[in-house]
Amino acid sequence: MADRTAPLTRHPPADSAAGAEPPDPREPLDPPDPREPLSVLLRDMRTSPRGLATREAARRLTVYGPNTLARRGGRRWHRELAQQFTQPLALLLTVAAVLAAATGAPALALAILAVIVLNALLAFAQEQQAERAVEALAAFLPDRAAAVRDGVR
């Protein structure tokens, strides 16, 4: 059986050299491997089956903030639609439309403007659909979770 490589996390292995810099809390974690044993997860999260100590939980709350999912407030659909026109491709096509109009090709300029509008509408619709899908998935997440602190649930 081949040796497994180190787990994919931002945390150094437990036997890493002393004095190494701590991980940056803003750096995203690599996805966990569900085949890894629980001991590896506990080591990488720097905890134990007894949970975090109250003091360590308070420290992590200060460093990382509360363990909550950010929910978007009221959406401004007109603002989101307008943002589609400030995308790099839309801006490049706008320059092309202006150049086409300036060189005496108004039909080409109108065609390019139609492509810009169509692209913005399709991208906006796709973004709205993706947001609805994320909200539907978020409905399956529990509002509360049990935590173990100092061995007490």
Automatic annotation (TrEMBL):
Domain Cation-transporting P-type ATPase N-terminal: 32-105
Keyword Zinc: no
Keywords: Membrane, Transmembrane, Transmembrane helix
InterPro entries: ATPase_P-typ_cation-transptr_N (IPR004014), ATPase_P-typ_TM_dom_sf (IPR023298)
Short name of any one Pfam family annotated for the protein: Cation_ATPase_N
Keyword set includes Membrane: yes
Top-level division of the source organism's lineage: Bacteria
Bias (Basic and acidic residues): 23-36
Region annotation Disordered: where it falls in the sequence: 1-38
Residue intervals passing through the bilayer: 81-101, 107-125
Listed name of the protein: Cation-transporting P-type ATPase N-terminal domain-containing protein
Lineage of source species: Bacteria, Bacillati, Actinomycetota, Actinomycetes, Kitasatosporales
